[in-house]
Amino acid sequence: MQAGTILLDGLDVTKDRKKRMHTIGLVFQDADTQMVGQTVEKDIRFGMENLGLEKEEQNQKLEQVLGLLDLSAQRSQRPRTLSGGEKRRLAIAGVLVMDPKLLILDEPFANLDYRSVKSVLSTLLRLQQEGHTIILVSHEVDKTLSHADQVLVLESGHIVASGTPHAVLPILSQHGIYLPQGAAVEDLSWLKR
Amino acid sequence: MAEALIFHYREQHTLLCRANPVIKFLAVLILCLVLIKASLAGVLLITLVLLIGAGMQRLPITHYKRELRFFALLMILILVTEYLAQQDILQAITAALRFFCIILCGMLIADATAPDDLARALGSLLDRIPFVHGAVVASTIELTLSILPLIFDASLEVVTARKARLERRRNPYTAITSLASAIFSLLLDKAQELSLALEARNFDPARKRPALPYSISDLILFILTLLVAVGSLVV
To answer: Which of A12, A124, A186, B23 could form an SS bridge with B218, CB 3.0 to 4.6 Å?
Structure first.
């Protein structure tokens, strides 16, 4: 998709880059490319400093997010030396402290091992329960579909189906999406394995 | 894949890490200027002090073996050309040691200073100069310093990928141009990714950042540097 309008709470943020970046938190497919800080702590602080938050508020948010995403033990480590799952959690932490209204994750389970997928998925569910709005872009529906409220199926840049997980499940395989044979929506989560 | 670590910052509780980047920058500047004038004995003194500093900083030299080969080659080149030009082995050794000290200074400052801290410190200093937009200059320095480790990472990635595909030794000219273009292309991709990451995190190069405070570590480092500088000029 290369055209359109981005409306957030009824407000057009398509052309207002600053506003858009402030309200939407982006987590890239390749977590490595998102890291700009020399340590985990510096990387998390980066966005908050750009927003001009006071040091005290920064410290408070930092401790909160380190605990929430289970990264306290890695706070002085170089981001590039983290495991795949930790890197992904750091990428989420980095945007989460900026208090975005919407969190968009591009293929958050790409290149992750089983344990890291479960760890990232648990983190996302925790964020969802805390009231964050999450848009997750993924073709691996077997890992997450049971946790989704709303599903959009895209093919060649067009929306070909939308609805609840139960409504779109029967048509997913027609669009080249892998589904375990005979799986019900409730089974489509790696947390239930 | 093994990662190149040279010229990367490592967070530690050492005197160098605690010191203000401005003082570290000043110390490197003083030592480099003194190196120009110092005799062999003076250069040896600076080398010794820097090696002690590297020990205190726990610089992981063994991890840098691969990257240091390039600098070792340059040092040998300096040694040989200086000897051929001057026909004096002591002068050649002095020149090579000067180069070694400059590289070691660079490694120490990179290992002990995060680019954003250096930018923050220099930015607040440069802001006092009329007509100079300190924050922008500092951000430019920060981004340049951030690109430096990327060059090593990109080189290592390209070389490892080529080795994995059993690249054969070819004409040196073809090999170098092909390697350089591959590294440059990868570096451009990495730079673009960095730019997207900065944009996604609301990075504004013109934004003023709070200055870093000075501490007793800065006084100790500054006095030590002055003592070494005077000492190396006297011996």
So the answer is: B23
